[in-house]
Amino acid sequence: MNERPSESHSKSKDFAAAETLDRGALNRALLARQMLLGRQRMSALEAIERLCGLQAQAPMAPYYALWARLERFEPAELESLLLGREAVRIALMRATLHLVSTRDALSLRPLLQPVQDRGLAGAFGKRLAGLDLDAIAALGREWTAERPLSFAELGARLAERWPDRDPEALAIAVRARVPLAQTPPRGLWGRSGQALHVPLEAWTELAPQEESCTNEALVMRYLSAFGPASVKDMQAWSGLTKLQEAVRRLGPKLVRFRSEQGTELFDLPDAPRPDANTVSPPRYLGEFDQMLLAYADRSRILSEARKKRVFTANGIVRPVFLLDGIVAGKWEIRRERSDALLVVEPFVTLSADDREALADEGARLLSFAAQGCNHDIQFASGSVED
C-alpha cells in the first residue's frame, strides 16, 4: 500500500510550484499597500491602523508619512488624534518609537514584551546585572503615573535608590517593563517639546485588553501593509522571533510565492499585487519612513549601495524620494527667515521628465511643510551613479 506523502514533502512540492515574483512585482505590491501609487481618501486614524503604525523616532516623521499617502491631509488632524488620546507615541516594533492608534497600542504592546526584554538585555544587561527589575519598574510606573517624566528625571530619581547604578540604564529598564506613552506637546506639528512619559493605561484611561494581539494576527497585519514577505522580513520588522510557527499555523489563510533569489514569500490571498509596469508617481518620504525598516531584504525599494547614503552611522534614516517606486535620492528643506528651500539630491541622472515631476511634487511638499514662506527648489549636483 502506498504511504501518504508527508506534510513537509507536500509543502516542498507546493513551494517548487510557487509563482516567482520579481523585484518589480514586489515593489508595486508594496507601493499599493502603502498607498503610494495614488493618494487615498481616508482618515488619518484609518491610515495609521491600516499601515500598522508609523515610525516616529523623528517627531514630525508621521506627518510626512501621512501627507505622502492621503488626499488633503492636514497636520491638525493628527494633532487632534494625539491631543484626544486616540493615537499615541510608544516603543513597539523592534523596541523603536512608533505612532499607533490607542487600540493598537493596547493590543500590540503585550505581544511585543519579549522584544523590549531582549533589547534591554542586549544594550543594558551588564549595567543592570543583579538588580530587581520588577521593583525598578514598579517605582517607575508609580512616579510616571503621578506626573509625566523625562528619562533624565526618571533616571535621576531611580539613581537615588540605586546610587551605584547608571541612571540611563535604570530609566530604560522602566521603559522596557512598563508601556510608556509620550505626551504632547512632543509630536505636535511645528512644535518642540521634551519627551515626557506616562504609563499607557494612565494616559488613555483604558485598561489593557483582556487578550493581546497574537503572532498570527500580527503576521496578517504585517502582510496587509508590507507583503508579500518572508519570515525573516516579518521578524526584522517586528523584532519577534520564531514567527515560522505562526505562519505554519495560518496555513491555507496565506498564499505562497518565491523571490527571484528563491526565498519563500507569504501573502494574503486577496491583497493587491499590481502589474510590475503599473505607473508609480514620484513621492517624497520623510525621515524613518516605515517602508525602509520593514524588511530583512530591502531590495524591492532600496539597493544596498544606496542604503549607505540613506542610513547614517548613528542610526538616522534620511528623507528620500522615490522614482519609479525605488529610492533615487535624498531631500531636505532649508529654512531662513521667511524662505524655504527644498534641496533635492539625486543618486541617479535625472531625465527632463523626472526633474519636472519631482519639481511638481516638491512644490506640493513645500506648500504642506512650509506654509507662509517663499518657496524654491534646488537640484543638487552631487555624485550620481553611472
UniProtKB/TrEMBL annotation:
Q: Molecular function terms in GO for this entry?
A: DNA binding
InterPro entries, alphabetized: AlkZ-like
- Per its UniProt record, what Pfam families does this chain match? AlkZ-like
Q: Which UniProt keywords apply?
A: DNA-binding
Q: Tell me where on the tree of life, at the top rank, the source sits.
A: Bacteria
The protein depicted here goes by the name Winged helix DNA-binding domain-containing protein
Naturally occurring in which organism (per UniProt): Cohnella hashimotonis
